UniProtKB/TrEMBL annotation:
Extent of the signal sequence: 1-22
Pfam families the UniProt entry points to: Glyco_hydro_10 (PF00331)
Family: Belongs to the glycosyl hydrolase 10 (cellulase F) family.
One of the protein's GO biological processes: xylan catabolic process
InterPro entries referenced in this protein's UniProt entry, alphabetically: GH, GH10, GH10_AS, GH10_dom
Chemical reaction(s) catalysed: Endohydrolysis of (1->4)-beta-D-xylosidic linkages in xylans
Annotated organism of origin: Spirosoma oryzae
Gene3D superfamilies per UniProt: Glycosidases (3.20.20.80)
Residue ranges annotated for the GH10 domain, each copy included: 22-362
Entry's EC annotation: 3.2.1.8
Protein name as it appears in the record: Beta-xylanase
PROSITE patterns registered for this protein in UniProt: GH10_1, GH10_2
């Protein structure tokens, strides 16, 4: 009995301050509840709720979520007739349980494709994969996900269509076809086109051409996602504002779908997951902590961004961060593996950074 009391006391002493602290941190989703949704991407460990404190933290801070990987075709559809829905189903349950809307990511993307698709060399076979994949996946999550990134990253930087396996075999109508199939399989779900750097003029023009083509075919598209993988001190605010206005003028919702701000040196622009950079003596400059000057610049950049989002809250429907905290971020491993990056609002222990306070103070 005495031992049990000691254990109980120890537990209280160690866990109470942490959860109290989490409760005392303002909530992003509450701060912006009258403005736009606040999302995060979720990885397998978070979806499986391996750490209850993390689960509680996510449920308190976010009301929308995108799977970081588990709904990509390589993971969902590993063989011609094989689908592995377990993790994606768990994500849907996670959303229902915690009142978090799920954005499916993504039906058609040239990257993270199953091995068998990379070996396809005929139009017929690719058409079969394309149609089956969209019908099966969008159909399964009909009424269960709020929205889909139907097509991801179909554009080159100059606004022309990327020479993906889809363009090569199916021709330039494949994007419209994907939206048509998604709409048939999942009529009540919002359908989006998603890309990085599509706030830049040439790529934006290409994106607008895609949107017009879909609409001219009488097919539905509800929104456009600007991924928002930007660099500290170089956030293109004017182009972002222009893009919000131009996309909204087409009647679309505008979303920032994968927001993070890179603080490490990088000679790779954009967010092409296929690109890599070799590590050298200067590529991981802050293994222990972010210098104060960079921390302040990061906070200023996030503040300016959120001021812009709020100015256009009638057009911006969601802002999703690509990770819950700095430790989760893909930027620790891209384009160089094993770096220590600091692109988000929460540090590796879920403690708010100055950037968090510079953002949350703007809400409500
Ligand atoms: C990234 C994930 O974060 C990584 O875990 C994965 O290894 C590669 O993909 N654009 C997208 C996202 O649309 O799906 C990518 O996510 C980041 C760039």
């Amino acid at each position: 009995m005495k031992n049990q009391c000691v254990v109980a006391l120890l537990l209280t002493a160690t866990s109470l301050p942490v959860s109290l602290l989490a409760q005392s941190i303002p909530s992003l989703k509450d701060a912006f509840k009258n403005d736009f949704g606040i999302g995060t991407c979720l990885n397998v460990s978070q979806i499986e709720e391996r750490d209850p404190k993390t689960t509680a933290f996510i449920a308190r801070q976010f009301n929308m979520a995108t799977p970081e990987n588990v709904m990509k075709s390589a993971l969902l559809h590993p063989g011609w007739d094989t689908y592995t829905f377990e993790m994606a189903d768990k994500l849907v349950e996670f959303g229902q349980k915690h009142n978090i809307k799920i954005n499916g990511h993504t039906l058609i993307w040239h990257s993270q494709l199953p091995g068998f698709v990379r070996r396809i060399h005929s139009q017929d076979s690719l058409r079969t994969f394309f149609t089956d994949h969209i019908k099966t996946v969008a159909g399964r999550y009909k009424g269960k996900v709020f929205s889909w990134d139907v097509v991801n990253e179909a554009l080159n930087e100059d606004g022309t269509l990327r020479k993906s396996v889809f363009l090569q075999h199916l021709g330039d109508t494949y994007i419209t076809d994907a939206f048509r199939l998604a709409q048939e399989a999942s009529p009540g779900t919002e359908l989006y086109y998603n890309d990085y750097n599509n706030e830049q003029p040439a790529k934006r023009a290409g994106c607008i051409a895609i949107i017009k083509k879909i609409k001219d075919a009488g097919v539905r598209i509800d929104g456009v996602g600007i991924q928002g993988h930007w660099h500290v001190g170089k956030v293109p605010l004017a182009e972002i504002e222009e893009s919000i206005n131009q996309y909204a003028a087409l009647g679309l919702k505008v979303m920032f779908t994968e927001l993070d701000i890179e603080v490490l040196p990088r000679n790779v622009q954009g967010a092409d997951v296929g690109q890599r950079m070799t590590a050298n003596a200067t590529s991981n400059p802050y293994p222990d902590a972010l210098p104060d000057s960079v921390q302040q610049q990061l906070a200023a950049d996030y503040e300016a961004l959120f001021k812009l989002f709020l100015k256009h809250k009638d057009k911006v429907s969601r802002v999703t961060f690509w990770g819950v905290n700095d430790g989760d971020s893909w930027l620790n491993n891209w384009p160089v593996r094993g770096r220590t990056n600091y692109p988000l609002l929460f540090d590796r222990n879920d403690n708010p950074k100055p950037a968090f306070y510079s953002v949350v103070k703007l809400g409500k």
